[in-house]
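Incident log, support desk, overnight shift.

02:14 A customer reports that sequence design results differ from what the structure should imply. Their input is reproduced verbatim below. On-call engineer (initials T.W.) acknowledged and began investigating.
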């Protein structure tokens, strides 16, 4: 899994970079193939804002979160993105074709 972190009017420190990678690493456990996540850290008025797009096999998922600190916003974002990935996987399994048997059973 590849995670790219960008800052918009915010300096991405190594500590922030490591925190983002640590929190979003659990998303990679849901996939056996490569996925790419782009994270943007920004300040909007007096709120820290985090925006992420995850390119997973078959779809791009997007999530946003805000918080009083950048670390709190990253925590909320990680939870939202994890729920989106799980929801996507459940949808994918529900629409899987049902095997058809022609042996009379």
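02:41 Re-run completed on a clean worker. Output:
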């Amino acid at each position: 899994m590849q995670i790219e972190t960008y800052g918009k009017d915010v300096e991405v420190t190594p500590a922030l970079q490591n925190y983002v990678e640590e929190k979003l690493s659990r998303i990679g456990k849901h996939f056996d193939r490569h996925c790419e996540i782009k994270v943007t850290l920004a300040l909007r008025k007096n709120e820290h804002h985090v925006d992420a797009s995850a390119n997973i096999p078959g779809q791009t998922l997007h999530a946003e979160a805000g918080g009083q600190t950048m670390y709190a916003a990253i925590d909320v974002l990680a939870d939202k993105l994890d729920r989106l990935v799980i929801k996507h996987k459940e949808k994918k399994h529900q629409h899987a074709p049902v095997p058809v048997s022609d042996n009379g059973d």
